[in-house]
């Protein structure tokens, strides 16, 4: 059975390190590994819209020597109700890996349960683990390597109940970081995810803090991350969200509270003036564009690592 | 192997005469030399009396390829007969190629630069001067750390016995205990905006081959980033494939701002290097702000290039790892050995008693060259192409020695 990557804690701390090291290596030497030469096909499935994920996975598979097979659900039988299990059984016979952006985590878990080839979570409602790999790789590259991640203070502020917050909790704890979530009490992260992150942090020397005090979350932080306040599927509550998250905006004052030279992350798309100000995302301390670039390198590293298992 | 070949009166006399001449002509800084050596081949050396020794010290981690490696000899002789020295007013191909190779092996980002020196101490002097160029004055160094005996390097070296008589030292250096995160944080806080650099050996050599914890190295990286200070790693002893990785920090997945190299780099030819990572560190020293006459001359650069090439061609990273692991496993099972520290072929045998000088002396009599960096540590830093069979001859002798001379802790005597 192949290894899958469905949530951030599917990689152990040392495995995560291996993947991140390879990601940094691939930024320097883009064609260093070629596991899909043949070319072998990788199915990249989308139930939801995507820009960065579509481009980075397609380009990445091609650079790994393979053939990216991009499938939109509405244009395939999956969109007409073919079961996840049946889809997995068909795909595993023809492709070398399956990448999927979908809704509930249960769907990707089911795909993995029926697939002998690696299944990669390219975003679910609960987790966005490929994004966190890219974030960690970008930080590592900027700060002197993967080993430098351990001990960093990473603050995520905004919607604490979303997939990015959950993935920062698990992925950050795996990297040995001190993960702080600053979010309103009505948007707390899933307690099960927090508990799991605490368990991981125990073994890696990291820690987990969840607070509604945004200033406390960002004070002294080495990394400040945020995400759009209105994620895909949340559009109905837009007005309410705008109001409740306003105190969690990442702006110039946030940077004054954070550690000197702190870096800022945003997984994009960004709404300037809402969750982040233009002065910050377009400023010197923004790592956003390197972060976006690292989607490519990190996902290539992950795919290559998975098919080698 | 195991016992010296018998030698007659005349041979014994020859060695004795050499040491007497030495003592009358050279300063006593190194005391009386243990033997006068005349020849080397691979991992073996011969003394003036014709005795053969297995060299597990490698000129203190210098002879990465052993003695007389053909590719190294060829590179040196070819270069000597082509262009031996021109000063740093002129560029030479070997020097440029070596700098490029080091940047490549270190995965250094764009803007990174190399400075060549003659030795490890001078590389650390350059790094020290770079820290001053940040406009800040405080350098944090580690207790037990050793960075050399020139004045700047000595200022960053902890051992009071080798410092005190040369006071006053260049100012601004504070020492913190090794692997103590709280003490490091406190020192960084105390230094405030004046913190220029933190310097550390990833594996402390003279302190007895003591590795820094992964978490501690990561903390140095985090704190230097947070404060804008330089992270200087002294890889003079642990760099250049010694640990089974090209550089010891690569075992931890971190990258410093400055790395110093020497010892193994030239495979026996004196050369040191400072690798500055990234544009900021790479441009700290500008025109006229530092220099050396001999540093990176064509012969040194050519032999270093040949050394790096041979390490790669002959798979010596893997050999250092596997022979190192073999030594470690066997040594750990010898009674009285409480731990084996280090990585690859940079090993410290930790003894239960401060008997390391006795072990080194007995080993020499039995035709093995090792040395004690601290009273309870025997250091093994042989050629990176040492074979398992060669290692086994030492293991066999050492196991026998330990059986005859149990290492009893001082308190239990």
UniProtKB/TrEMBL annotation, chain A:
Residues given in the record as L-ornithine binding sites: 163, 227, 231-232
Gene3D superfamilies listed in its UniProt record: Aspartate/ornithine carbamoyltransferase
UniProt: carbamoyl phosphate binding residues: 50-53, 101, 128-131, 267-268, 295
Domain of life: Bacteria
PROSITE patterns in alphabetical order: CARBAMOYLTRANSFERASE (PS00097)
Record's catalysed reaction(s): carbamoyl phosphate + L-ornithine = L-citrulline + phosphate + H(+)
Keyword Transcription assigned: no
Similarity remark: Belongs to the aspartate/ornithine carbamoyltransferase superfamily. OTCase family.
Protein name stated in the entry: Ornithine carbamoyltransferase
Gene this protein is translated from: argF
UniProtKB/TrEMBL annotation, chain B:
Keyword rRNA processing among UniProt keywords: no
Modified residues (N6-(pyridoxal phosphate)lysine): 263
Residues in the signal sequence: none
Major location (coarse): cytoplasm
Quaternary structure and partners: Homodimer.
Additional remarks: May also have succinyldiaminopimelate aminotransferase activity, thus carrying out the corresponding step in lysine biosynthesis.
Protein name (Swiss-Prot/TrEMBL): Acetylornithine aminotransferase
Highest taxon, organism lineage: Bacteria
UniProt keyword list: Amino-acid biosynthesis, Aminotransferase, Arginine biosynthesis, Cytoplasm, Pyridoxal phosphate, Transferase
The EC number(s) this enzyme carries: 2.6.1.11
Gene that this polypeptide is encoded by: argD
Protein's cellular compartments: Cytoplasm
Alphabetical list of Pfam families matching this protein: Aminotran_3
């Amino acid at each position: 059975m192949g290894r899958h990557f469905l949530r951030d804690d599917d990689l152990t701390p040392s495995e995560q390190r291996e993947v991140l090291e390879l990601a940094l290596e691939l930024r320097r030497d883009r064609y260093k590994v070629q596991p899909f030469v043949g070319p072998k096909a990788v199915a990249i499935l989308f139930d939801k819209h995507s820009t960065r994920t579509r481009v980075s996975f397609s380009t990445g598979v091609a650079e790994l020597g393979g053939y990216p097979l991009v499938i939109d659900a509405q244009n395939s039988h999956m969109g007409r109700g073919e079961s996840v299990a049946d889809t997995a059984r068909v795909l595993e016979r023809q492709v070398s890996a399956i990448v999927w952006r979908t809704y509930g985590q249960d769907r990707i878990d089911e795909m993995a349960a029926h697939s002998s080839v690696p299944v990669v979570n390219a975003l679910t409602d609960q987790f966005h683990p490929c994004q966190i790999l890219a974030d960690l790789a970008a930080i590592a590259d900027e700060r002197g390597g993967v080993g430098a991640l351990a001990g960093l203070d990473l603050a995520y502020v905004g919607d604490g109940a979303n997939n990015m917050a959950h993935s920062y909790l698990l992925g950050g704890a795996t990297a040995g970081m001190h993960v702080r979530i600053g979010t309103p009490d009505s948007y707390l992260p899933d307690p099960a995810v927090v508990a799991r992150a605490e368990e991981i942090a125990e073994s890696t020397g990291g820690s987990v803090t969840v607070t509604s005090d945004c200033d406390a979350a960002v004070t002294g932080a080495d990394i400040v991350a945020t995400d759009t306040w209105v994620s895909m599927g949340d559009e109905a509550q837009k007005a309410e969200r705008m109001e409740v998250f306003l105190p969690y905006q990442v702006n110039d004052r946030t940077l004054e509270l954070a550690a000197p030279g702190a870096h800022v992350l945003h997984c994009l798309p960004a709404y300037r003036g809402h969750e982040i100000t233009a002065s910050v995302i377009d400023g010197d301390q923004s790592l956003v564009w390197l972060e976006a670039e690292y989607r490519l390198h990190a996902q290539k590293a992950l795919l290559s690592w998975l098919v080698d298992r | 192997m195991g016992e010296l070949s018998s030698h007659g009166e005349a041979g014994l006399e020859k060695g004795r005469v050499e040491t007497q001449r030495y003592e009358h002509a050279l300063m006593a800084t190194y005391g009386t030399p243990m033997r006068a050596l005349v020849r080397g081949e691979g991992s073996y050396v011969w003394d003036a009396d014709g005795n053969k020794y297995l060299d597990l010290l490698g000129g203190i981690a210098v002879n990465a390829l052993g003695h007389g490696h053909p590719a190294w000899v060829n590179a040196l002789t070819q270069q000597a007969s082509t262009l031996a020295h021109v000063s740093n007013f002129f560029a030479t191909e070997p020097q440029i190629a070596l700098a490029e190779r080091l940047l490549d092996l270190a995965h250094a980002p764009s803007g990174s630069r190399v400075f060549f020196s003659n030795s490890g101490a001078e590389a650390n002097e350059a790094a020290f001067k770079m820290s001053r160029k940040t406009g800040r004055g405080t350098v944090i160094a580690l207790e037990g750390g050793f960075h050399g005996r020139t004045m700047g390097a000595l200022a960053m070296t902890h051992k009071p016995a080798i410092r005190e008589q040369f006071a006053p030292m260049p100012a601004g250096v504070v020492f913190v205990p090794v692997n103590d995160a709280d003490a490091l944080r406190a020192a960084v806080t105390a230094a405030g905006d004046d913190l220029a650099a933190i310097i550390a050996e990833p594996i402390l050599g003279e302190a007895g081959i003591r590795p820094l914890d992964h978490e501690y190295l990561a903390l140095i990286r985090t704190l230097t980033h947070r404060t804008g200070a330089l992270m200087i790693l002294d890889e003079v002893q642990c760099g250049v494939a010694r640990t089974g990785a090209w550089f010891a920090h690569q075992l931890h997945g971190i990258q410093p701002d400055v790395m110093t190299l020497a010892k193994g780099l030239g495979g026996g030819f004196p050369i040191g290097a400072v690798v500055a990572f990234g544009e900021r560190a790479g441009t700290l020293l500008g025109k006229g702000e530092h220099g050396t006459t001999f540093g990176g001359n064509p012969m040194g650069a050519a032999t270093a290039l040949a050394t790096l090439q041979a390490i790669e061609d002959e798979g010596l990273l893997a050999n250092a790892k596997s022979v190192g692991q073999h030594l470690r496993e066997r040594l750990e099972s010898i009674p009285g050995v409480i731990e084996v520290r280090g990585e690859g072929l940079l090993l410290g045998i930790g003894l239960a008693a401060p008997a390391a000088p006795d072990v080194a002396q007995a080993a020499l009599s039995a035709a093995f060259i090792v040395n004690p960096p601290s009273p309870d540590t025997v250091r093994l830093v042989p050629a990176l192409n040492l074979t398992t069979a060669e290692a086994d001859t030492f293991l066999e002798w050492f196991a026998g020695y330990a059986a005859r001379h149990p290492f009893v802790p001082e308190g239990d005597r």
